[in-house]
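STARD3 N-terminal like (Cebus imitator), 234 aa
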Amino acid sequence: MNHLPENMENALTGSQSSHASLRDIHSINPTQLMARIESYEGREKKGISDVRRTFCLFVTFDLLFVTLLWIIELNVNGGIENTLEKEVVQYDYYSSYFDIFLLAVFRFKVLILAYAVCRLRHWWAIALTTAVTSAFLLAKVILSKLFSQGAFGYVLPIISFILAWIETWFLDFKVLPQEAEEENRLLIVQDASEREALIPSGLSDGQFYSPPESEAGSDEAEEKQDSEKPLLEL
């Protein structure tokens, strides 16, 4: 027996699944098609998808959470005013947490500008923020003296690092694939609605019928009978 190669089988399986999805779309009646198109157009009019809005909320949470931890650290180390002057005015890379707060502000501004304001559909912005965050935190942990300043020397760098990578995972595996899938569904539904519009609406299923069978056999029989009549008269 001849066996198809695996790549040909995969291609056949993919084509069958795509044809199945197209058949499912075309099996929907025009009312349902219009309802789906209106729902997709309503999502487009909103300007931002639900999953992208969730991502932007998480980016905001990142900034607020790091800010809260930094304020707690300022209170623990001798009061907000004294510690704030020490960490901001007399900034020292080796002992200050102010740069970690600025790193969270940097992530917030770049990601909100790229994915909320500009509605970017590419991963380069999140790749930039994650790379800068990871490199800066690794260098600060290696070179600074944060570990000698108590628990916050561990908490702030670790939390910032984890939040940056969660944002990357969420955008790359949730936001962009889901929006691309919704866009493909919209194109399929619009194509199905255009095909539906080409079919005349006044025709019913009973009006599509096959023509009657030809009566050539009966004509031949009549001709045969006519030819036999002179013989009988003789």
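Residues 1-22 have pLDDT under 50 and may be disordered. The first helix runs from residue 6 to 26. ok done for today
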